Amino acid sequence: MDANGTNGHLCTGASSHVTVLDQDRSLLQLMTIIRDVNTGHRDFCSATEKVVTRLISTALNNVPSEECTIQTPIGASYKGLRFTKGVCGVSILRAGTSMEQVLRDTWMGPLTFGKLLIQRDETTSLAQIYYSKLPSRITKDATGGSVIKAVETLKEHGVSEGSIILVNIVSSKKGLDLVCGKYPSLKIVSAAVDMDLTPKNYIHPGLGDFGDRYYGTCE
User: Fold this and answer.
1) Interacting residues of 136 by C-beta distance below 8 A, sequence separation 6+
2) Is 33 helix (H, G, I), strand (E, B) or coil?
3) How far apart are CA 173 and CA 31, in angstroms?
4) How far, in Å, CA of 212 to CA of 144, rounded?
5) Catalytic one among 19, 94, 112, 209?
6) pLDDT, greater one: 163 or 137
7) pLDDT of 191-203, one tens digit each?
8) pTM of the model
9) How far is it, in rounded angstroms, from Cα 51 to Cα 134?
10) What's the average model confidence in pLDDT over 84-105?
11) What are the boundaries of each domain within the chain?
12) In whole angstroms, what is the distance from residue 166 CA to residue 110 CA?
């Protein structure tokens, strides 16, 4: 479930709902650029960054917070809020790495990162994990297939299902049904949901191989 039905970005610190960004003209223009086979590498990356900024901002709304009162420079009181947990961004390679810098730029609190390399067998369509590197304090900094494999790995490291937020650009309807059925407490934030899959289980109409397009490794 993502650009190719597998990759994404996990923010570990919430509950079981799917949030799809408002399909306003600004977003639809960006998604048109991203999906267009004729879009060049630089424009693809630029449009992706703008979409990811909206996704990350939406996902961070699910980090636990509390009200607080501060004093402004003119001596007035202001009732605001502060987040009560840090965030750990876990990238599912390669596509998920594209979201890391936006998370760094957006989040003002404690922040750590982890990496998961999960690849799908092209014959069986089953996901296998090849690499896992997660921070030791991931169970503390928690705000929040391949997605299923990623969630399983995080849970094995002590992260509660309800504190995981999956952030991706394009989801498939079938993928959402599968993941939400298996993990009812998982939170998902996506920019678009496509209804169909190809015979090889790639999202249709999708946007092609996200990793190749983002990193300029298309043949």
Assistant:
1) none
2) helix
3) 17
4) 27
5) 209
6) 163
7) 999 999 888 778 9
8) 0.84
9) 26
10) 90
11) 8-215
12) 19
Query: Cα–Cα distance between 77 and 168 in angstroms, integer?
Result: 38
CATH classification code of 8-215: 3.40.50.2020
Residue-wise DSSP of 69-81: EEE-TTS-EEEEE
Whether 43 sits among the annotated catalytic residues: the reply is no
Place of tokens 């630089």: 42
* Active-site option among 12, 120, 141, 143: 120
- The answer to whether 22 is a known catalytic residue is no
Q: Using the 8-state DSSP alphabet, how is residue 161 labeled?
A: G
pLDDT 10s digits, 120-148: 666 655 666 666 778 877 766 544 357 78
Q: Is 209 one of the annotated active-site residues of the chain? A: yes
Q: Tell me the residue length of the chain.
A: 219
Question: Hey, what are 84's tokens?
Answer: 């009560």
Q: How many helices (H) and strands (E) does the chain have?
A: 6, 11
Catalytic residue check, 36: no
User: 23-29: long-range contacts (C-beta < 8 A, 24 or more apart)?
Assistant: 23/192, 27/51, 27/54, 27/191
